[in-house]
Write a structure and sequence with these properties.
The protein is elongated and about 100 Å long. By secondary structure, it is mostly helical. The chain has 4 helices and no strands.
Length: 143
């Protein structure tokens, strides 16, 4: 049963990645501003989920961020095919940099920001210590 849950979660993450990839590809055809707006929404969801400690939503937002990075790489690919020489390598390096930012750098920065914005943890509640010597009731105590 536990493996089925893990497989379902991996499918949910893959679906979030795919939806973000498709949406990014669609909004990039409308313009870069639309794509940056979509990225702002994805990162805002990540920040909200991290500050409220909703781990599943945070993971889905992270997968959507990765999907956004791959969508941008897909958008840059025709430029790479038309480029020659050093410009081609520069565009491929930009692809890798974009992917590194979407996968590692931005989530780490958002995590740090969420930690600073998060209210402090309440102190743990006091726990009553058990009695050191439990009292033994005897016949003298009944009267």
């Amino acid at each position: 049963m536990k493996r089925l849950g893990l497989l379902g979660w991996l499918i949910a993450l893959l679906l979030a990645w795919f939806v973000a990839f498709v949406v990014t590809s669609m909004v990039l055809s409308e313009g870069l501003a639309w794509a940056l707006g979509w990225l702002a929404i994805v990162w805002a969801v990540f920040l909200l989920a991290e500050s409220l400690r909703w781990v599943p939503l945070r993971d889905l937002a992270w997968a959507a961020s990765v999907g956004w990075g791959f969508g941008l790489i897909r958008w840059l690919d025709p430029m790479i095919d038309g480029a020659a020489g050093a410009l081609r390598w520069l565009l491929m390096a930009a692809d890798l940099l974009c992917l590194a930012v979407c996968v590692l750098v931005a989530p780490a920065l958002l995590f740090g920001l969420a930690r600073r914005l998060r209210p402090p943890e309440p102190p743990p509640l006091p726990v009553e210590r058990p009695a050191t010597h439990p009292r033994q009731w005897g016949p003298k105590d009944e009267a």
